[in-house]
Amino acid sequence: MSETATGAHNIFMGFSFLKPLLHPLVILAFLWFVLPAGAADPDPSKTPGGNELNALANRLVKDGFDPEKIKALFSSESVFFNPSGVSLFFIHTESSLDYDQFLSKKSIARAEEYMKTHKQALDLAEKEFGVDKTAITAILLVETRLGSYLGKRTVLNTLATMASLTDDTLREKIWNSIPDNKKPKREVFLKKVEKRSQWGYEELKALIRYTDREALPPEEIKGSYAGAMGIPQFMPSNALSLARDGNADGKIDLFDHNDAIFSVANYLKHHGWKPGIPRQRQHEVLFRYNHSNYYVDTLLKISDRLKEG
User: Fold this and answer.
1) CA-CA distance, 290 to 304, in Å (whole number)?
2) What are 148-186's pLDDT values in tens digits?
3) Across the strands, what pairs with 223?
4) Is 216 exposed, middle or buried (0-12, 13-18, 19+ CB in 10 A)?
5) Where are the domains of the chain?
6) Directed axis angle between helix 293-308 and helix 279-289, to 10°?
7) Does the pTM exceed 0.85?
8) 115, 122 Cβ separation under 8 angstroms
9) Contacts of 284-290 spanning 24+ positions with Cβ under 8 A
10) What is the DSSP letter of 103?
């Protein structure tokens, strides 16, 4: 059944006495009389679930993205405004995360096994980029448990939702989706929205460019609540500029371990990691990966234990 007929079918289902008339020809006749002119040929940037992302799609086209590609992307049933997912961004607190779990004997043992399994890629990355392989492994352990937990949220929806929050109505939908007992102060929320909506738009553009370059379907990439993706949990802007091909197949796939290892190594080198740098400088570079002292302290402890092994 076409999208037009499906929409009419949903309208009819609200009237039980009309159910015997649910035939495609009857539906189309009904549409002719009740829908405004042009409704059978909807705006291509509207999503099946509503028009929340319509303005965002138009904004992308105005900024130079191919209209046909944007039409196809935002016409996908899997692309939609997602307040329940993005609301987590406004209640997340870094200090509440349990980083000690990554220092357990079991976690360290898994990291040691990972280093054996991916020894060749780690050795090459350490040689080429001058970054300790224990630091690379520590990042992958904390970010995604060495690739075993990659996130289940559609990155495109997360970033598109964040980018669309310049709209007052959509911003209120996010606010209302946050549980009352977890709501931040209103002024804190609004300040963060103002800052992060532009950030989300820039990351959305980077995602589209990255997936276009690597011939990947952007609507199928899953990641974190904040839009980070792959084994190293790169944001799209970093994937676009700093990710590297670690298996020499001519592609950069952050869900591939070799590519993930090389990408982390290049990221750290880009931000100042050099062989033999002092502890404080290591801390400063790792802080660029995640702006949390809890996070960095854990990475350095993991690295130390892996060196001991």
Assistant:
1) 19
2) 999 999 999 999 999 999 999 999 999 999 999 999 999
3) 153, 229
4) middle
5) 1-41, 81-309
6) 120
7) no
8) yes
9) 286/135, 286/139, 289/139
10) G
